[in-house]
Amino acid sequence: MRYVKISKQNTYEFLERLKKIGTLYAPHKVSEKFYDFCEVDDVKEVEFDYQRTIRPPRRFFYPEREVLFTFDTHKVELYENIPSKEKHILFGVHSCDIVALRTMDSKFLDDQPDPYYKVRRENGIVIGISCLPDEYCFCNVRRVEFVDTGFDLFFHELPDGFLVRVGTVVGHKLVDPYEGELFEEICPDDIENMSNFEEKRASMFTTTGNWDTLRYFMEMRLDHPMYMRESEKCLGCGNCTLTCPSCKCYDVQDIPSIDGRTGERIRYWDSCQFRSHGLVAGNHNFRETKLDRFHNRYQCKNSYCKDTTTSFCVGCGRCTYFCPAGIQFKQNLMEIAGYKGGTT
Ligand code: SF4
Ligand code: SF4
Questions:
Q1: Do 90 and 129 have their domain in common?
Q2: Which of 186, 297, 332, 337 lies 20 to 30 Å from 325 when distance is taken between CA atoms?
């Protein structure tokens, strides 16, 4: 792997140059407490130091709502709405969210790739950035606090800039033209500073251990009392799934136009926490109760993703942070597994 360094000031200039390649998105502070990925107009507004965004990065490849095709019943024709091949660059993605994108790939780029997702993924550039955890983070016990693949460049914070890991050929093409101008060779002090940052980060996690046994405990304790107790608090709002970087469920609807002959087929994010999610023909609901729906999310998120060799949940903490009922996902999982040490 190639390693280079960039100063903070040159990083702003690099962001300016990225804007010339395609649409640049990066974390912005959107309210007193919240951050979100926004299109970059002024590079000085990019936040390098943030905990989590409200909306997960998957929306740049699998948007909240999209038109799959339009139709005209009189001509019996479909007009596919495959996304354009314009480049888009996602700067400032945390390692947990990068692994979450790889879990999305495992579903959307399998034997029958989703053409909409595929085009966006092929034309998207992912640039990661290091971060320090808060009490909601547990990416470490998911083994995803440091990524090896899934990024084109990864920026590691240093006292005077960033140490940059170059992850792909695309990443090389972003760095090579500016070597000696914006990027420089790393020196022993930079390596030591990166090492110190990693050590500091490791010491800040409030949960420790290895959670690979969790999914087995969950299988063996399907009727654990936590499910009933916590599902009674759940409002069924869907925040936990809509903010989750690895949730994939969607619904598809045909929306006819008022002319009675044309229309569009849309796909939009759904949530297994909505009652309508399990409703099928004949008014049968295969997840009738809140307990069923709550149980499903816990099982689904903690199941094994073979492509990332960990669970679909990457421990980003969003589902707890944004839950209006204060349901503590991490603590509830620990209760099921019987993990005791290392939590707040
Ligand atoms: S965010 Fe909380 S209240 Fe809303 S559906 Fe999820 S667990 Fe229930
Ligand atoms: S289940 Fe919760 S902690 Fe896990 S990836 Fe989704 S939002 Fe993050």
A1: yes
A2: 337
